[in-house]
Each structure stands twice: as C-alpha cells, then as structure tokens.
Amino acid sequence: MNTNIILQAKDLKKYYGKGETKVHALDGVNLEIETGKFVAIIGTSGSGKSTLLNMLGGLDTPTAGTVTIGNTELSQLNDEQLTVFRRRRIGFIFQNYNLIPTLNVWENIVFPIAMDGQKPDQKFIGEIVQLLGLEQKIHSLPNNLSGGQQQRVAIARALASKPDIILADEPTGNLDSKTSDNVIALLHMTSQKFHQTIIMITHNPEIAQMTDQTIRIEDGRIVGGL
Amino acid sequence: MDDWVRQMGGDPDSNSSDNMSGAVNTMTNPTFEPTTILLGAVVIILFVLCGYLLIYNVFDIAVMQEIRRYGLYRTVGMSRRQVKKLINRQALWLSCIGIPLGLLAGYFIGKTALPRVMSILSSSYENVAINVEPSPILFVGAAVLAALTVFLSTRKPVRVAANIPPIEAFRYVEAAAGKKTAKKSTAGASLPRLAWSNLGRNKCRSVFIVASLALCVVLLNCMGIAAESVDIEKQVSYSIRTDFAVVNAASTNGMEGFTRREQGLNMEVIDAIHAQPGVSGASAIYKNTLDDSNVTYDFPVEFTYTDIDTESGIPAAYTDGGIRFQLGDDGRALCNVYGMEETALSRMDLQEGETDAHTLYERMMNGEGVLLGVQSDMGTSVLFPDFNLLDVGDMITVYKNGEPIMELPILAKAALNGDDEEIGYTTNGPSEVGGEGLYLYLPTAVYTEIYDEPVIYKYSFNVEEGERAAMTAFLEDYVTNVDPSLNYASAEDARQDAMATRTMLQFVGGLIGIIFGVAGVLNLTNTIITSILARRHEFATMQSIGMTTKQLTRMMVWEGIFYAVGACIAGLILSVILAFTVVRGLTGSIWYFTFHFTLLPAGIACIVLLIAAAVVPAIALKVFNKGSIVEKLRVAE
Asked: Is there a contact between B430 and B257 (Cβ–Cβ < 8 Å)?
C-alpha cells in the first residue's frame, strides 16, 4: 500500500433486501484517498453516496469488500473496537449537525475525547474554536445557535480529537448559500492548517469544484472523477 | 359488648378520647370518627395519586409516541375536537377492559387474602366467625374511583395532542433542552453529567417519577414504624401478670364471665399444677359471686338513681357520673371483692397510700384495712378520674346479712389491668357481679373470714423458663381431656395475640407498599423506554462519534439511578418528617403502641429501588435500542 494512501476501499458492496426487491446500494466500489486531500463525492439522490460514506466510516458493515484506514481493516474490528477506532481516528460531520441538545458547545466539541477518557487539548481546541468563530458561544446550548453556527460546532467536534480523516455527509445541505460557502471555506482552511483528509458528500457541483478531487457515483458505482 | 370492646383494645367504661382503639375499631365496626375518616381519606388520596401518576405517564407516553400520527390527522383535516375525542375514546375503551379486570382480580385477591388477615387479627376469639362477602358499594366505589383517575390523568396528554400544530408534530421531540439557552460548564461530558442533563428535559415527568417512587418508600416506612411501635410487652402485661393462669372457661369467654360459685376451681387442678416441675409464685385468687349477695359494702359514695336490670333482675345504683354498682340483698353494693396471697398482691400496681406490698399485706392481715383497685388507662396506668371515687383513709363498712361486721379503711390504691379484674381483656364477670363499682382486694385469710363459701376463680403462677413448654402441653391436655370446664391463659398466648397485630400491620403495610413500589417501578420503566425510543437518533449520534454501547448503557443506568437517588432522598426525608408527626400522632392515640422510630423499611425499599433503577435501563436499552447506527441516524432525516 502506498504510504501516502490514508483510506482504501476494495470491491465494496452493499445489498439491501432479497429477490425482486433487492437493492444494490453499492455495487463494487474501489477507492483510494491520499492523506491531506479534500475530496468531494457527488451523485444524485439514492446513488449510494451516503451508504459509501457510512461504509468508509465504519458506521455500516458492507455485504462484501473491505475498508482500510491507515493500517486497520475495519471488518476485523468488533463493535466496541470500531466505536473506539471511530472516536480516535475519524471525525463525522452530518447534514443535520447532530449536536447533543443537552450539552453546551464546549461539551459537544469535547464529547468524543471525553468518551475516550482523555483530557482535551485545551490549546488546540481553543485554536479551533477561535478559527471557527465560536468563542462567544462556548456556553450556549445548541437550540440557541443558528444552523451555520451549529455546523461550525460540528466541525470543531470532528477536528477536536485530531482524527486521521473527516467524513462529512452534506455538511451544507441545510444551510443557505452564503453560509454554505463559509462552511466549505472553513473546512478547506482547517484541512490545510491541520493536514486533515476530508471526504465530503455534496450534490452541489459548485461546492465540489472547491475541493482537490471529485468522485462521481451513480447507481452504486463510481463513474468518474477518480 | 363492653367486654368485647375491651378485648379489642378499648375501654367501654371510659369516656376518655385517648382510650379508644382506632385501628381495631375501624377494622371491625366502622365508626365515623374524625381520625378514621382522615386516615381513610389519606389512603384513598394516595391511591388516586399513585394511579394518577401511572395512568398519566402511560397516556403521556402514548400520546408522545403517536404525536406524528395525530399531527398527520390534523394535517389531513381532523379538528382539534376530533383528536381529543379520539384519545378520550381510547381511554374509555381501555377503562372498559381494565376496570372489570381489576375488579375481578380485586375480588379474588380479597377473597383469598382477607380471611388470612382476619384470622391473624382474631386469633384470640375462637367464637368469631369469619365471613367475607363482596360489598357492591365497594365495587361500584372502586370502579368510579378508577374511572375518575383515568379521566383526571388523561386531561393533559389529550390537551397536548390536540393543541400541537400539524407541522410541529413531525418535528416533535420531547422539549429538546427546555427553555435554557446556555449552560456554564466546561467540565466536559462525563456519563453521570450526561445522564443528569437528560433528566432536565422533562422536569415535570422527572418529578412525577421521583414522587411516585418516593411514595412507596414513605408508605413502607410509615407502616414499618407502626408495626415496630406495636408494644407487645405492654399488651402482655395488661392482659396477664404471671406466666400462666387457670380459670373457669366462663372467664375466657367474652360472652360469659365468672359469676357463680359453681364456676370456682376445684383443688384437683391446683394440686395437679403443683405436681408439675418449675412452678413458683403461685396464688389462688378468690372472688365473690352473685351467690354471695348476703355480703355487701357501704362507703362514702353518693348514688343518684337506681334501677333493676331487666334480664338478670338484679338492682343497681348509679353515681352522678353513671358508674354502676350492683346491689346485694340489703340494698347495699355487692362490689368485686378478691382474696389473694401476698405473692399475687405484690404483682399489682400499687400507686397511692401504702405502696410497699409486704407492709400492706401485713396490715391487711391485721384487719387494718383494704386495698382499693381503680380502673386505669391501658397505656399509661393513670387512674381514671371517673372511677377514682374514694381516697386513701376513707372507710368501707362490710355488711353481712344486713349487719355491719367489719370496718376497713382504704390503705392503698392500685391501678387495675385486665388480669386484676378477671383475665386478659375479659372483664365480664366483675361487670355482672359488682358492676363497675368498687374493686376490693384482701388477703385470703380475711376474705375467707368474710364469705361463707369462698371460691377460687383463678389460679395464677409462674413457671421456670425451661418448663413452660411442658406446662403449656400439660394445661392444654388438662383442659381438653381432664376438665373441659376449665381454660388457661398464658403470657405466651398474650404475646402471640399481640404479635398478630404487628404481623397484620406488616402484612397490610407491606402489601400496600409493594403495590405502590410496583407502580413506581412501572412508571420508571415507562419513562426509560419512552426516553430510549425518543432518543434513538441521539444515541446513534453519540455512538457514531465515539460512545461505546457499554458507555451508553452506563449513561442510561446513571439516569435510572438519579431517579432512584432522588426518590430515596425525598422518601427518607419525608419518612422522617411523617414519622415524627402523623405516625407518632396516630400511634400515640392507641394505647398498645409505643412510638418506635425506624428507617429500616425505607432503607430496604431504597436499596430495592436503586437496584431496579439500575437494572431497568440496562434491559430496556437491550430491548428497545435495536438496529444499526445508520438506521437510527436516518430516523429523523
């Protein structure tokens, strides 16, 4: 394996249902992502891009094929190990932010680190918070934040544990275009500043153009952009 | 009837309000005393409250889970009124099924459990028949109460369902984080803290859960204190002063009593007892009967009126205060007169005058006077003023066949218990012979000098501890096989009778406590399950960003434990407060209670609750949080 490759998917397949109703959500995906790249996965609704992202993040198990992050093959890990792997090595950003409503901004950001039983790196997280413009909101509860602010908290949360890779599922899907541009710019900036690998789903071609690399997926297969 | 009241723990002769036995009276013949009504009202309110908490919670949860459906109905054209009607009808249907089922279950449980309770209660009366009949009023009342509870409990959930705007319903997640917009904390996110902040989401429900769990702790403890406060030795010492006493069976029969010479004990039984090992402190007790009507007494008490008993034909005189003295042949008072050995007299409760039993007995032997017994409070042995008619030094003149034969000044006064009057709680004999009037105690020698044919009504004695079982067996055999006209009483029997009261309180209290406890735990289970169902998406989020299943379980266990800890703290505090106010007040009003504080029942209840609160979330999570993270993440999208 090329030492520069952080993530590799081999012949990834995911089928749902049986017989006539069988759905080929992923139908043999092969993929290699280099460290430090900002990659966009684009495709229409139902093309299988979310399924792919879930497979890559170890949230879902493939019907066949393997996902390797660094030197770890995800299928070799049990449920608990996979969770621990996720919180240390992968950061997630969701379309609907998925912040925990009962925790304030700071607690949300350090959640994965707290779950790992670690002390958060105050200086590093402080830097992220500043970079994302969240200093004034540190004690706010999510219900008191705008969509853009919530997504910035989610980005901070994904970055806080210094993961190898960040997976973002339509991070701008619920935001207006100005805020969207802002969020993408922030993602771009952090990826460069912290040498993060980011894989982002979007169906907005303009946003995809702002990334280093675009992968187009259709009917569970990669059809271009590699 | 008087006698029976006495055996039930009351004193028929006393007008003193703190002499009534509330607990027993309410069980046997419902009186409408304020305490009884209050107690009943409290119990009913507690049950309604408990039912309310449970039913409210169930409907609240049901509505919350179905809120999208109601929202959909509203979107497609159902009016607010129609949604209300829909849920009300649901409640009605459930009531139509549930209430008859509950009544049926109640009937069968009552049919099996009640005779048990009654038989515990009435172990000392062999002639009381126990018959449990369902009362239609009770059943209708229970049904109405249940229906009322359902009606009250469904008001709020119905309102919530009807008032939710159609579009909102689709987004309805239990009050995300309340009205709070900020939380000052940078401590991070430990599992207990996560659990704690979850409780704040629906404060009202959290309070309900804690209240319903605390209720069970409080109830169990109150009943536990009541049971613990049953003063067994107080009851034993009231009913018997020696280990054993043998009497004519008439004496132990609440409907009869020792009234005739022919009921006197013969020497055979006394000799037979003496032949047994370990007997000590024995004394034959003599007593006058209706056959001794030629011996009467005169003393400085004024009678205001007289009448003749229609049944017995015996004339009686009454004091101003209504104390009844039966009259003998010459129209003077018969009194209840006892003759006994010094050993028996020394066991009496001498309160005024010559209180040294030995000196008193010596002086009485010299013909210097007599011991006057006065009825007293069962709990405190304070002489009842109504019966305390004479003073030490007052002169009592003994008349025989109408002629004065002896002058006996009162040397001392004693507080009487059941044993001094007759035996145990039965005092029918003295009541029918001398009436409520004077109780006079004399040495055997003086007694036998006064009465022509003195008879022994009771033989009292102690037995060495190791020989008591043998003595019980001997007496049991004697009164069954040798002389069935006799009966015996023992301190052990009295103790067991007293224990029965405690057992009954423990049984009933435990049952009520367990019912409330089960309701509380059901409430908790409901809430935890709802919480899990409502937060599946949130759990999936937490799991996706690094919370392991173990950590999730631990967080939920913490949540359950917080409820339980809240309930325990509230329950313990309330238990202490109620113990020293209500429970002490109620037990203080019944003579055979001596308030005894304990927190043991509450402690045990707390431990059980804590365990249940830890186990329920773990199981609920296993059962209700199934499915992959991806599936659950998709729920809200």
From this structure: yes
Q: A60 and B633: CB-CB below 8 Å?
A: no
Q: How far apart are CA B422 and CA B385, in angstroms?
A: 21
Mean pLDDT of B286-306: 92
Structural domain span for residue B141: 32-172
Alpha-carbon distance of B504 to B509, in angstroms, equals 8
Q: Residue B27 pLDDT > 80, yes or no?
A: no
Point out the least confidently predicted range of A45-59, B156-170, B304-318, B336-350: B156-170
Reported in sequence order, the residue ranges of A17-144 that DSSP labels E, i.e. its strands, are 23-34, 38-42, 64-69, 72-73, 90-93
Q: What tokens were used for B92?
A: 């009605």
**Is residue B125 included in any domain, yes or no?**
yes
Contact status of B637 with chain A (Cβ, < 8 Å): yes
Residue B555 lies in a domain: no
The domain locations on chain A are 35-63+70-224
Whose tokens are 């093309």? That residue is: A47
Instruction: Select the highest-mean-pLDDT range: B156-160, B372-376, B630-634.
Output: B372-376
Segment B594-609 shows an average pLDDT of 91
Q: Which residue has the higher pLDDT, B311 or B186?
A: B311
What residues in A contact B190, CB-CB < 8 Å?
114
Chain B from 615 to 634: CB within 8 A of any A CB: 628-630, 633
* Degrees, nearest 5: CA angle A51-A54-A56: 110
Q: In whole angstroms, how large is the CA radius of gyration of chain A?
A: 17
Q: Is B403 on the interface with A (CB under 8 A)?
A: no
- Locate the DSSP E strands across A70-180: 72-73, 90-93, 165-169
Q: What is the pLDDT of residue A2?
A: 60
Lowest mean pLDDT among B246-250, B273-277, B519-523, B632-636: B632-636
Give the model's pLDDT for residue B150: 85
Best of A115, A161, A165 to disrupt the B interface by mutation (most B CBs within 10 Å)? A115
CB contact under 8 A, B630 and A141: no
Report how far residue B636's alpha carbon sits from residue B540's, in angstroms, rounded to the nearest whole number.
11
CB contact under 8 A, B543 and A138: no
**Contact A142/B at CB under 8 A:** yes
**Domain presence at residue B313:** no
What's this model's pTM, rounded to 2 decimal places? 0.72
Nearest CA in chain A to B175: A101
Q: What is the pLDDT of residue A41?
A: 92
Write the CATH number of the domain with boundaries A35-63+70-224: 3.40.50.300
CA gap B632, A98 in Å, rounded: 12
Q: Does B551 touch chain A (CB under 8 A)?
A: yes
State the smallest CA–CA distance between residue B75 and chain A in angstroms. 24
Our CA-based measurement puts residue A14 at a distance from the nearest CA of chain B, in whole angstroms, of: 13
| CA dist., res. B223 & res. B244, Å (int) | 32
Domain count, chain B: 1
Question: Binning pLDDT at 50, 70 and 90, where does residue B117 land?
Answer: low
Say whether B182 and A141 touch across the interface (CB within 8 A): yes
Positive or negative, the CA dihedral B104, B109, B110, B111 is positive
For A76-119, the pLDDT digits (tens) are: 998 889 889 998 999 999 888 888 888 889 989 998 898 888 88
Chain B residues with CB under 8 Å of A95 CB are 637
Predicted local distance difference test score (pLDDT) of residue B24: 38
| Neighbour tally for B346: CB within 10 Å | 16
Nearest chain A alpha carbon to B631: A60
